[in-house]
Design goal:
about 425 residues, alpha+beta, 3-hydroxy-3-methylglutaryl-coenzyme A Reductase, Chain A, domain 2, 9 strands, about 20% strand, binds 3-hydroxy-3-methylglutaryl-coenzyme A, HMG_CoA_Rdtase_bac-typ, HMG_CoA_Rdtase, EC 1.1.1.88, NAD, hydroxymethylglutaryl-CoA reductase (NADH) activity
Amino acid sequence: MAAWQSGFYKLSVAQRQQLIQQQLNLSQEEVEQLQAHTSFWSSQMIENYLTNFEIPEGVALNFVINGREYTVPMVTEEPSVIAAASHAAKIVSQSGGFVAPTSSRQMIGQIVLENIDDFEQTKTWLLSHQTELIKVANDSHPSMLARGAGAKSLRIRQLDEFVALELLIDVGEAMGANVVNTMSEAVKAWLLNQGYEVVTAILTNLATESLQTATCEIPVANLGENGSTVAKQIAKLSHLAQIDPYRATTHNKGIMNGIDAAVIASGNDWRAIESGSHAYAVQDGQYRGLAKWTVGDKQLFGTITLPLPVGVVGGSIGIVPTVKLNQTISKIKTASELAQVIASVGLAQNLAALKALASEGIQAGHMRLQYRALAIQIGAQATEVNLLVERLSKLSRVDQQIAIQELAVMRGK
Ligand code: HMG
């Protein structure tokens, strides 16, 4: 390992940028790029901090959820995602909007025991000490109990030669990872004192006690002049995602386009949502689509259910300035409401994708919105982008070479 890397974390941000410049031969312009995008709060959040990486933020419009209108901040680098969510939300709003019930919001802390001779005897003993175990957990985080939250119950599962004691914890308005881990470690210490051998004590991100559902009903007439045909195609694509993991993966990627963007904008841990969602998608042993669509003679019915353990306080939420701003934009006040909105965004994202696949194909709408990014990519100036996109939209085929030629023609070369 190069000597300069040892102790890197002890340097100031400016010293780190200078050292990186020297060791990795950055130009003066490149190091100025590092220096141009820093902030104090970011330097306090991660290790070996150098600079901020900017990802665009937009808002998805037209959302009506449980009778309320929402403007949803979304952070994404992918063109057409926000347009798609807004488009679908506009269609759904014409028939009352999304319905997303308030769901239970408990996280699961896993304490895994090993070298257990008799599972049933161990299970009986642990359950007979449930009150004590719950108290140990709550004593480790008294503020949760004071708010009426905290550890509520436990369950025991046999995992081959291991035994998992699982705490079900109401984490209030937070996502709760730290609370769950603190409580799990307190119970681990107590069990060690009782002579048990503990392999691990940590939350699970398969948050099956924090499932959120969103549904919508759309008159097929609202899907355009071929609404009935489009609705049937959407239902067929949905069925395909239930029977084929290859299709289900892309179906769910489309859903996560919206979910990740809304989760990031809300300051929550999108990796936790991603891992939990995909684990939930394979709950019955086969990976399937998280959203489903069925069609009656007049209505298209959509539903999505996935684990959404998100919070409106705690973690980076209180640190990242734009998260507070996004809470003002969205007017979301509680973790439960946030989960309802995010699930609805996921269902909207899926509707837009399947509607496009069922009609003009994904490229028509998607690519048109890619032209802006393509224009920047080939060096168009801000004042040239609109005209270049207009010219590209008129062509039957567009690629980077064609865009470069069009730009040259625009510049009179
Ligand atoms: P359109 O029919 O041309 O839209 O669709 P429109 O002009 O009729 O506008 C309708 C509404 O859409 C607008 O309402 C906006 O809300 C929104 P209005 O403001 O006019 O009252 N909208 C826009 N919002 C912001 N910026 C825009 C914009 N254009 C329309 N520029 C659209 C165009 C792109 C919306 C449509 O073609 C679409 O939804 N396509 C799907 C695109 C998509 O799914 N993108 C995600 C990336 S592709 C992917 O990775 C997922 C996938 O692989 C998943 C899967 O396979 O299942 C496809």
